Amino acid sequence: MELRGWGVLAIQKEKGVTFKCEEDLIAAADVYAANNEMDRSKVIRLALKRFLNVSPVEKKRSAKK
After folding, report:
1. For a 10 Å CB count at each end of the chain, is N or C smaller?
2. Looking at the whole model, is its pTM more than 0.85?
3. How many domains does the chain have?
């Protein structure tokens, strides 16, 4: 899955996810959503995409001797 080309992610089927989060983060997401005419799910998707694009998790390679 390519993380840099968001178009690739946008055409994939969506799957529901449930997770736990602090109430203040949910409230902040709701405020952002209301101010930007989007729903909470879109805010969370956008935040996750931005986080993964900026901070990719890379496998660490062991040094060859």
Report:
1. C
2. no
3. 1
